[in-house]
Amino acid sequence: MSYIHRTIADLARSSPAQALFYQAVEEVLESLEPLLESDPIYRQNAIIERIVEPERQILFRVPWVDDEGQVRVNKGYRMEFNSALGPYKGGLRFHGSVNAGIIKFLGFEQIFKNALTGLAIGGAKGGANFDPKGRSDREIMRFCQSFMTELYRHIGPTIDVPAGDIGVGAREIGYLFGQYKRLTRRYDGVLTGKGLLWGGSYGRREATGYGCVYFAQNMLLGRGETIEGKTCLVSGAGNVAIYTIEKLYQFGARPITCSDSTGTLYDPHGIDLDALKRIKEEQRLSLREYLKEFPKAEFVPLEAYPEDGHAVWRFPGQVAFPCATQNELTEADARHLLANGCSCVSEGANMPSTPTAVELFVRERILYGPGKAANAGGVATSQLEMSQNAGMQQWSFEQVDQRLQGIMLDIYRRCSETAAEFGQPGNLVLGANIAGFRRVADAMLQQGVV
Fold first, then answer.
1. Which of 20, 116, 255, 298 stands 20 to 30 A from 83 (CA)?
2. Which residues of the chain have a pLDDT value below 50?
3. Fold: same for 54-187 and 205-374
């Protein structure tokens, strides 16, 4: 049994039934083979065995009372994975699908994503199997307060700084911060994604989507092209997808799709951004509502999806932006994208492409930006928010956006140069994994066996 497969097998024994976590680990470790062969110091110091185990796993119950007076109980998680480069940093996800394996997969990915930014932040992730959809503001407030009543003792501005993720937006961050402040009597930058009135950063809401488009533009420029005039496919209809679409319009592209948990919306004339924001950010309704205003658009309901993939990837487009959730883009989807002329994929979600889809993209040598590189703009801007909080300042939107563009360019260059260093130019999967791993591993070596 190879070193990599032995590591996965050991994880399966010590952390059973966590398939997404094993998938994330295997994807990274396979890319590291050239580095591990050229430099035995990482094996000699058991860096792999240490980096795949969280430094701390925090699991707790979250009791709360709904509007009918019924006591509810959810599970809360915080996986503080690695602090070699700085305080733990990573979002909180509130969704019914959340379990320990999902949080560990996300936290593991976060280590390398954060390392690629070049900023002083470690990797973590957290959340709960609570779904805010369909809950009143008061129920969400009570849940957030109960969640923070346990979490507050484990976090701090130089210890662990959570942010938002799926199901955790400005509303939830506000309730979490208010409870943290009540419990600690401290007003500090312990959460990012805060409101602009109380320590938030301009550009944070837009950062992941904007950064994903900046990364795609950098890949295209490296091949002598631009995104202007290209037809684009976007999945998701949350924060990342909406601001990916916004930036695509600013760059002169035409985004024609988006999706939510009810189905896929296709508008060949281009998704109307104002209508999308109104439906998803203000009214919190299904994308089906879009047809009331634009009846010539097409809506593919979830039950009409192809058995082997996602409807959003079956429309013709030149650039694809998976911005919804993990494993949403299958090998069959990848084959349809390639057959329809797609030459660039920039991932706005975490691990949205299945392993076989990734293999196909790499083999066909299309421009492919893996999530840990392409969607790092969100966490990078979170760190910029931490910097502003530390100096009790607030930078302008233009200042933040300028820094974001520079960070995304640096990430692209770092991944591209590392891929070329190891004899696989253009393979940004290998480049991202080795570049991120090497920065964390070298810090771990210098800090001793801890």
1. 20
2. none
3. yes
